Amino acid sequence: MQTFAFWALAAAAVGTGVAVFAVDSMARATFSLLASFLCVAGLLLLAGLQYLGALVVLMMVMEMLVMAVFMIMYMMNPAGLMPMTMVHNRRGALLVSGGLFAVMAAGILLVRWPERRGRPPADPTADLGMALMGPKMLVMMVIGIAILATMIASVVLAVRGGRYGRAEGDGAGGDGANGGGAG
Amino acid sequence: MSLEAFLLVAAALFCVGLFGALSQQSIVMLMMGLELMINGVVVAGAGFWLRVAPNADGQVLLLVAITVMALEMAMGFAVVTALFRARDVDMTDDAGDLKG
């Protein structure tokens, strides 16, 4: 049963991943990506990683909803009412990715992988929590600082404003490096 | 579920993402490709955790990978917004100032 669930989720994850670049609608592409993430979260849960599986579900649902908003903001064809082709060098990309998959698959099947050391803990979530609050505290602190830095950097990049505050109009009153109107 | 099964799924996801990252003109679609590639890394990490070293180190590494995925998306959207605001550009081909 578990093996069947694994392969069903794996096929769905890859299939919906392919669909991201095959469907006509930007909204459908976003939700295909979300489906792929949810299938991967299912794989994590099957592996016994309950916390990380739940984290992927919660984070990706929010992230894909934000992405859907951006899609509708920036793309000319969010509803997929007409076929769209926004690709370049499709054949080259297919060759590179297909060739890489063949090499990786050959390596995966030919390499002699090491034996498992130890057994999975009874409660992997507790194990992770104890590690993060103990010997791996530095990792958690670096992650926190990285998130803070990203929040500041993304706001600085995204906000229309100059060095001394918000620019007026289309940049006429501002002297900021990233101010100025679009177009 | 063997390690090879996990790694094959991971490789497939990574290569689908690579195809998107290489072929898409839209910056947002390109970022979707990058997300799929990191998704593959997460699956491979879960396989290694389960079948090679089921200790906390592997879970911490996966947590870092998932965080990177979220941060990449946030920074990507900010860069797209800045680029669109400054130049009215949302395609990679139009944003080639540093192209040699």
From TrEMBL, chain A:
Enzyme Commission number(s) of this protein: 7.1.1.-
Give the keywords, sorted. Cell membrane, Membrane, NAD, Oxidoreductase, Quinone, Transmembrane, Transmembrane helix
Bilayer disposition of the protein: Multi-pass membrane protein
Similarity remark: Belongs to the complex I subunit 6 family.
Organism listed in the record: Actinomadura yumaensis
Gene Ontology MF terms: NADH dehydrogenase (quinone) (non-electrogenic) activity
Entries under InterPro entries matching the protein: NADH_UbQ/plastoQ_OxRdtase_su6, Nuo/plastoQ_OxRdtase_6_NuoJ
Its subcellular locations are:
Cell membrane
Any transmembrane segments, and where?
Answer: 6-23, 30-49, 55-74, 94-113, 137-159
Quickly give the catalysed reaction: a quinone + NADH + 5 H(+)(in) = a quinol + NAD(+) + 4 H(+)(out)
**What is its biological role?**
NDH-1 shuttles electrons from NADH, via FMN and iron-sulfur (Fe-S) centers, to quinones in the respiratory chain. Couples the redox reaction to proton translocation (for every two electrons transferred, four hydrogen ions are translocated across the cytoplasmic membrane), and thus conserves the redox energy in a proton gradient.
Organism phylogeny: Bacteria, Bacillati, Actinomycetota, Actinomycetes, Streptosporangiales
What's the protein name? NADH-quinone oxidoreductase subunit J
Automatic annotation (TrEMBL), chain B:
Q: What is the name of the protein in this document? A: NADH-quinone oxidoreductase subunit K
Task: Supply the alphabetized keyword list.
Answer: Cell membrane, Membrane, NAD, Oxidoreductase, Quinone, Translocase, Transmembrane, Transmembrane helix, Transport
The transmembrane segments are: 33-53, 60-84
UniProt family annotation: Belongs to the complex I subunit 4L family.
Which molecular-function annotation in GO is an example for this chain?
A: NADH dehydrogenase (quinone) (non-electrogenic) activity
Primary role: NDH-1 shuttles electrons from NADH, via FMN and iron-sulfur (Fe-S) centers, to quinones in the respiratory chain. The immediate electron acceptor for the enzyme in this species is believed to be a menaquinone. Couples the redox reaction to proton translocation (for every two electrons transferred, four hydrogen ions are translocated across the cytoplasmic membrane), and thus conserves the redox energy in a proton gradient.
Kindly state which reaction or reactions the protein catalyses.
Answer: a quinone + NADH + 5 H(+)(in) = a quinol + NAD(+) + 4 H(+)(out)
Task: Please state the Enzyme Commission number of this protein.
Answer: 7.1.1.-
Q: What does the subunit comment say?
A: NDH-1 is composed of 14 different subunits. Subunits NuoA, H, J, K, L, M, N constitute the membrane sector of the complex.
One short Pfam name that applies is Oxidored_q2
What Gene3D superfamilies is this protein classified in?
1.10.287.3510
Which InterPro entries does the entry link to?
A: NADH_UbQ_OxRdtase_chain4L/K (IPR001133), NUOK/Mnh_C1-like (IPR039428)
> What is its EC class?
translocase
Known HAMAP family for this protein? NDH1_NuoK (MF_01456)
Q: Where in the cell is it found?
A: Cell membrane; Membrane
What is its membrane topology? Multi-pass membrane protein
